[in-house]
Input
Amino acid sequence: MQSQRKPAVRNKNLPVRAARPDYTAAVRYLDGRRDIFRVRNADNMADARALVLSELGDVQSLVIALRH
Output
């Protein structure tokens, strides 16, 4: 005789973490070079900008956009 298994119980009390959005950063350096970066783990657009500036230092221009 085979024993029957109980169905797995899902815990509905587990918190669901919302996915953070990804951002794209277009950078132009002081010497004219340019680059595009993907920014993850930023809470908002201002945080994404601060992350890029902290990594790169002085840049001529920086544009941040939300990735779709």
About this structure: The mean pLDDT is 88. Helices lie at 45-56. The beta strands are 23-28, 34-39, 61-66. The radius of gyration is 22 Å.
